Amino acid sequence: MSLSLEQVDRIARLARIELTPADAEATQAKLNGIFGLIEAMQAVDTTGVAPMSHPQDVVQRLRADAVIESDRRAAYQAVAPEAEAGLYLVPKVIE
């Protein structure tokens, strides 16, 4: 697939981008290069190849899932204007 100059101008107009004729030709060449790369990649036979989430076999280091802060809910709710049953009460704003 390749784009014509008219198609590039239409895309630029839809994207609200002003292109000079020289910019339109340069953009056309770049977009056609991208489409060529996509066509080449789609031509590769990938049957039997498992999809992968990352191109390299890497493992993310994870920290231990441990509680490091104490429960201070009672202290926070003590200074709240209104709290009930562990919940903060707020004024009704939608009728």
User: What is the first-to-last residue Cα distance?
Assistant: 56 Å
What are the low-pLDDT stretches, counting only 5+ consecutive residues below 50? Answer: none
Number of alpha- plus pi-helical segments: 3
Average pLDDT value? Answer: 91
Named CATH topology of the domain at 5-42: Histone, subunit A
Order of helices and strands: HHHEE
CATH architecture designation of the domain at 5-42: Orthogonal Bundle
Strand content: under 5%
Structure commentary:
- The longest helix has 22 residues, at 21-42.
- The protein contains 3 helices and 2 strands; from the N terminus they run αααββ.
- Helix content is 40%, strand content 4%.
- The protein is elongated and about 70 Å long.
- Strands 1-2 form a two-stranded antiparallel sheet.
- β1 and β2 form a beta hairpin.
- It is mainly alpha-helical.
Helices and strands, with pairings:
Elements: H1 5-14, H2 21-42, H3 73-78, E1 83-84, E2 87-88
Concise summary:
The protein is mainly alpha-helical and 95 residues long. The chain has a domain at 5-42: Histone, subunit A.
What are its keywords?
4% strand, two-stranded antiparallel ribbon, elongated, mainly alpha, 3 helices, Histone, subunit A, 95 residues, 2 strands
